[in-house]
Every structure is written in C-alpha cells, then in structure tokens.
Description:
Blueprint: E1 6-9, E2 18-21, H1 27-34, H2 42-54, H3 58-80, E3 84-88, H4 98-105, E4 110-115, H5 118-122, H6 124-127, E5 135-140, H7 146-151, H8 153-158, E6 166-170, H9 182-192, E7 198-204, H10 210-222, H11 232-236, E8 243-244, E9 250-251, E10 270-276
Helix pairs in contact: 1-2, 2-10, 3-4
Amino acid sequence: MVQPDWTWVDEDPGWRPAVIDTSVAHSARMYDYWLGGKTNFAADRALGDEVERIIPTIRFMAGENRRFLGRAVRRLMREEGIDQFLDIGTGIPTEGNTHEVAQLENPDARVVYVDNDPIVLAHARALMVGSPTGRTAYVHADLREPEAILRHPALAETLDLSRPVGLMLVSVLMLLQDAEDPWARVAELRDALPAGSCLVVSHVTGDFDEKAVSTVAEAENEGRLPLAPRGREAVARFFGDWELLEPGVVPVMAWSPDGHAPEDPEAAYYWAGAARKPR
C-alpha cells in the first residue's frame, strides 16, 4: 500500500497546526494547476491531467470562471455600492484575488476569505496583504458549517454586518453533495446578511455537455474528490427569494461580459448569477 506523503504547515501562533495529505488531489490545488500556478502536487496534476483529457478546454474554463469573479466584484462595487466581501472557497492565492480587484476600485474595501484547505491556510499571509487603508482576513472553516464562519471573530473584526456585503460562492458549491443540503447552508448565510447584500454564484454544470461532465465527475469521485454538477434550476435555488441581477442565471461567459458578448457562451461549463437581498 502506498503511504501518504504528509506535509506539515506552520502557522501564526494561535492557529492549530494543519496537515496536508499531498497524496490526495484537492480542488483548490487542481484549480491552481489549471491556472498555471505552482502550489500543487503530483496527485493534483495527475487528476487535473485526467480531467483535461476528458475536457481539453478545462484550463480555458478555469480562466473564464476567474474572470467572472473579477467582473462580479467590480459590478457589485460600481452598481450596488458594496465595498466589503465574504469570499468562501477562496482557493490558493493567484492573480485577480477578490481583495485585489476590490481594492483597485476602492482602496478601503475589506475582504474576509474562507477556505478549508490547509494549504490555503499556509498561504493566508499572502491573501492578507491588501491596500494600506483596506483590510483582509482569513478564516479557516468549512462551508458545511456556516455558523462557525458567521461566529468567527475575524468576520466581525473585518466586516460591518450592518452594511451590505458581497457573498462570493464562486465554483465551490459543486463540492457539496445534494445529501449535504448546500441550499440550506447558503440560506443560513443569506439570512445573516443585511438588506442590500448580494450573492454571487458560479457552478459547474452538465447542461452544456452532459457526457463529458459526467465522465469528469466519475473520475473525480474515484480520486476521492466528489463533484456535484447541477442544472440551471438547481443553481437558481441558491438565490432563494433574493432579486436576481440582470441577466439572471446564465452561462458564466455571458454574465455581464466585458466588451462584446462571447460567440459561444456555453464553451465554459458553468452557470453564473448574482442576486440582491431586498431592502
């Protein structure tokens, strides 16, 4: 039996030591690999290559998902007046992080990042480097336990929950199975946010190529990385009774595109949308 390759990560005092099992692929590190990053291991690259064999354009899709995050942050700031964000499923620091986009728009912008991958915890210092007047913080927690996120001291210290917040759930809900009721988890987060807050979601789907995405899901499940693609209706449920922003729940490339609309908006297999909590 192959022994796991364990890597210990040292953190700041007060943070519990984290252990990274590099023998098992992780979604954040695979995403980092597809984006051209260096914080990934053999298991991540092996499964990432297998996914790329099935969907040769996966790197393009990862890039489109990242570009959507930037467009969404800018739109929420410019049109909704939001200057603070709660980004759950942060992933490994790379170009175009939420705080980088937000603080280019407003140097005073504040961001709390949340992720459950120990390697993201190890890179938290990089995430926390913001503008001189803005502020960023990192919470090591799991989307499956929204109460722990909402109770964390860093959240109250960084964000003003009496004012609107941008809740970013970009390419993370697909990691929760239906049996875990991700809709209830998101509803708990929505309920805790003030009126005028916005929820941003992107989610992998099989609606545009069911066979390819089903094959990827099977490969990732075999690699102990459960993936739950969802259709448009299931993705729309995450917004509850909040008011959808135009153009609604659409292919990720078609959501508020910069410049001209894409020739084939379904070339990236994600649904995307944003919604506002009624005032």
